[in-house]
């Protein structure tokens, strides 16, 4: 109570309304906040299958390599198998593997090996034992539809690093 304020019966009523009004406002604000809060046990998007207005996030679709870029080479393999000549143009030993068809094998530096009758689609992975960067080039023979030569060289550029060759069933070959 302010000693400078004149005493009047209306002042006490005015003070009561201000206090009561503040309480009503605080109560209304509390109710609005309580209704806006979501329990940790509730699903705010209601993503349950069949729920009314269910919001189901779309799965991430990974595009096929041919949708992102042109193939590095194309081979015609009427027999659905391929002969891959792997050429190691580095002085380092390379570890290679045809996924689902061979175990890891070693190829000495400056050597080559023929991998015959590899069914397509196929994936060939390769790397050095010490983790050096590699790059690859594909050479296809004009007179042989089902032969591919993969020449592996060293590189110092991370952007040129490659460690696999993918042959799709349509004959598209991609280096990655």
Task: Give the percentage of residues in beta strands.
Answer: 25-35%
Shape: globular
Helix content, binned percent: 10-25%
The rounded Rg comes to: 36 Å
Write the H/E string, N to C: HHEEEEEEEEEE
Task: Report the biggest beta sheet as strand number plus sense, adding barrel if it closes.
Answer: 6 strands, antiparallel
Give the overall pLDDT as a whole number. 78
Number of strands: 10
Q: What's the end-to-end separation, in Å? A: 82 Å
Structural class: alpha+beta
The strand order across the widest sheet is 1-10-9-6-3-4
In the CATH hierarchy, what is the architecture of the largest domain at level 2? Sandwich
- Tell me the domain tally: 2
- Taking pLDDT < 50 over at least 5 consecutive residues as the criterion, the unreliable ranges are 27-32
**Tally of DSSP helical segments:** 2
- CATH topology of the largest domain, anyone? Immunoglobulin-like
> What is the name of the CATH class of the largest domain?
Mainly Beta
Key attributes of the depicted protein:
single chain; 2 domains; alpha+beta; Immunoglobulin-like; six-stranded antiparallel sheet
Describe the structure in your own words.
This protein has 176 residues and is an alpha+beta fold. It folds into two domains: 7-59, no CATH class; 72-175, Immunoglobulin-like, CATH 2.60.40. The protein is 18% helix and 32% strand. A six-stranded antiparallel sheet has the order 1-10-9-6-3-4, with no helix packed on it. A four-stranded mixed sheet has the order 5-2-8-7, with no helix packed on it. Strand 7 (134-140) and strand 8 form a beta hairpin. The longest helix has 28 residues, at 9-36. The radius of gyration is 36 Å and the shape is globular. Mean pLDDT is 78; it is low at 27-32.
């Amino acid at each position: 109570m302010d000693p400078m304020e004149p005493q009047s019966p209306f002042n006490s009523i005015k003070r009561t309304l201000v206090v009561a009004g503040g309480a009503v406002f605080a109560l209304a604000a509390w109710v609005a906040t309580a209704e806006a809060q979501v329990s940790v046990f509730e699903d705010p998007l209601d993503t349950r299958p069949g729920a009314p207005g269910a919001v189901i996030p779309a799965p991430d679709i990974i595009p096929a390599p041919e949708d992102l870029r042109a193939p590095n080479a194309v081979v015609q393999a009427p027999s659905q198998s391929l002969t891959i000549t792997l050429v190691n143009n580095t002085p380092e030993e390379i570890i290679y593997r045809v996924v689902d068809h061979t175990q890891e094998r070693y190829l000495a530096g400056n050597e080559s090996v023929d991998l015959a009758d590899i069914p397509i689609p196929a994936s060939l992975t390769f790397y050095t034992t010490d983790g050096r960067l590699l790059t690859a080039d594909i050479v296809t023979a004009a007179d042989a539809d089902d032969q591919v030569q993969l020449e592996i060289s060293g590189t110092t550029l991370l952007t040129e690093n490659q460690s696999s060759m993918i042959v799709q069933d349509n004959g598209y070959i991609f280096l990655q």
